[in-house]
Design a protein that fits this description.
The chain is α/β, with parallel strands linked by helices and 374 residues long. The protein is built from ten helices and 14 strands. InterPro entries: DNA_methylase_N6_adenine_CS (IPR002052), RlmKL-like_Mtase (IPR000241), RlmKL-like_Mtase_CS (IPR053943), RlmL_1st (IPR054170), SAM-dependent_MTases_sf (IPR029063), THUMP_dom (IPR004114).
Length: 374
């Protein structure tokens, strides 16, 4: 059993912990912006392939006391790096956190890199080159107080970059947050889903992928672990084949994205084609004031603008009021969720929230408001 750490967006730790347990993870323990868990190599590959709310999966190599640069260098050199990287392989080091002595992430990363290549020079007389774009081995070093956790990054590019979204709107939700919102809303694939402000389509697309049991990792060209010396190609091929075979051919209930902007809807449709689900999810050009319920009951999730720029909030007040009016008048029997980072605007919806769930959209503290329409 290896020890792993899944990095996540702030506030999504408990959602991700539940997801990891469903995927078969053991010893699951949420932490700040991440979740510790343990499992075998199969689980490592499965989490990268299937996790919808995770950014990266780190494989813990060592944890040790580390109060300064000299101690960091010494401890890194205690690892036999030959089992992970050869001089002809490239490497990169990503550093996070810090303490009083190690307070600059670039310097911390440099110490780790120097310790590894000095070991290589001593053993082989040659060293690995640094490749920050596409290294053969990506190393993560995290300093917290006087401790260091050294890990290998098994994912490479962040897992929120599914690979299906070449076209994006002005303020797109991260795919990982969209997937988490679906979980928070307790949406199930047998319920109709509507995003009346869908933009480039992230929420309807993530709902469709979940409903059709399509692994989000299937769209990525590569994961970092595929370059590792111990990469099990036979196992990985089997897991990919199983993921393809487990897909559901047809949605159980309609999934609809709507927006008034035809250009941004074109982006949503491009993204749907990239997912190979353009014949399943439906996108319609409809102004909010004209939207109608597509079924007697279902779930709405939307992410209206928050009005971060000066003056925007005043103009958006009427829009939020319209949102509440449309919900109340045309969506009886539905449950609506509104993600907002502006408390004053949220009041303009004019409906009593049945629940308020704190969540971050990037660095913006937001609230997911639940409204039940009777």
């Amino acid at each position: 059993m290896s020890q792993y750490f899944a990095t996540v967006a702030r506030g999504l730790e408990s959602i991700t912990a539940q997801e990891l347990e469903r995927l078969g993870a053991k010893e699951v323990r949420p932490d700040f912006t991440g979740v510790h868990f343990s499992g075998d190599r199969t689980l490592l590959y499965q989490v990268n392939l299937w996790a919808r709310t995770v950014f990266r999966v780190l494989v813990t190599l060592r944890e040790f006391p580390c109060s300064n640069a000299a101690r960091l260098y010494t401890e890194v050199q205690k690892i036999n790096w030959q089992q992970y990287i050869q001089p002809h392989n490239t490497l990169a080091v990503n550093a996070t956190g810090g303490n009083r002595q190690l307070n600059h992430t670039h310097f911390t990363a440099l110490q780790v890199k120097n310790a590894i290549i000095d070991q290589q020079r001593h053993q082989f007389g040659q060293r690995s080159s640094v490749d920050t774009e596409n290294p053969d081995l990506l190393i993560n070093v995290h300093i917290y107080q006087d401790r260091c956790i050294l890990s290998l990054d098994s994912s490479g590019a962040s897992l929120h970059r599914r690979g299906y979204r070449p076209a994006m709107g002005l303020a797109p939700l991260k795919e990982t947050l969209a997937a988490a919102l679906l979980d928070m809303a307790e949406w199930e694939p047998n319920l109709p889903f509507l995003d009346p402000l869908c933009g480039s389509g992230t929420l309807p697309l993530e709902a469709s992928l979940k409903a059709l049991n399509i692994a989000p990792g299937l769209f990525r060209p590569e994961f970092a672990f595929e370059k590792w010396h111990d990469f099990d190609e036979q196992l990985w091929t089997r897991l990919l084949d199983e993921a393809e075979e487990s897909q559901i051919p047809q949605l159980k209930a309609p999934i609809i994205g709507s927006d008034k902007d035809p250009d941004i809807l074109d982006q949503a449709r491009i993204n749907a084609r990239q997912c190979r689900i353009s014949d399943q999810v439906k996108f319609t050009q409809t102004d909010l004031k004209d939207i109608e319920a597509p079924a007697d009951s279902g779930v709405i999730i939307c992410n209206p603008p928050y009005g971060e720029r000066l003056g925007d909030a005043a103009e958006l007040g009427d829009f939020y009021k319209l949102l509440g009016d449309v919900f109340k008048q045309r969506f009886k029997g539905w449950t609506a969720f509104v993600l907002t980072g502006n408390k004053e605007l949220a009041k303009r919806v004019g409906l009593k929230a049945a629940r308020r769930i704190p969540v971050y959209n990037g660095s913006i503290p937001c609230t997911l408001l639940k409204y039940e329409m009777y």
